[in-house]
Amino acid sequence: MSCRSPRRNGVSVVSVEVTDTVVRVAARTTAQQAACPGCGRWSIQIHGSHLRFPRDLPAAIKFAVVSLRVRRFICAEESCSRRAFAEQVPGLARPFGRRTERLRSTPVSVGFALAGRAGPG
Fold first, then answer.
1. 0.70 cut: is pTM over it?
2. Residue 24: CB partners within 8 Å, gap ≥ 6?
3. What is the dihedral of CA 3, 4, 7, 12, to 10 degrees?
4. Nearest residue to 88 (alpha-carbon basis) of 49, 34, 40
5. What is the rounded distance in angstroms from the CA atom of residue 38 to the CA atom of residue 26?
6. Which of 14, 36, 77, 105 has the fewest CB atoms within 10 Å distance of its CB?
7. CA distances to 49, 61, 65, 67, 115 from 12, in Å
8. pLDDT tens, position by position, 27-45
9. Where does the chain have alpha helices with state H?
């Protein structure tokens, strides 16, 4: 099964594949520019791209595999120590993060729900 979806929050879903055990989602970023985390200057010059594979929560009892293509931009500020940087997708994953924000926040939610008490042992 494949599908296309509209752009949302700077990410476009390219395809979704569902099997008996796995849901695979391929997506790419869509922003036309990105701010350098070193100096804050906006850049439109693309240096390249790479794939990120942030872990996500299971979907309908199936393992979720996300492949997100993010672009690398060139910082045009000569005084900036960063020459190139990867664009970030706020709300999806933190910089250098290996988990989506949904997966990262789940243990915190469970902890609050249990009010710090351990489960029955």
1. no
2. 15, 16, 17, 18, 65, 67
3. 70
4. 34
5. 29
6. 105
7. 15, 24, 16, 12, 38
8. 898 888 999 989 999 999 9
9. 101-113
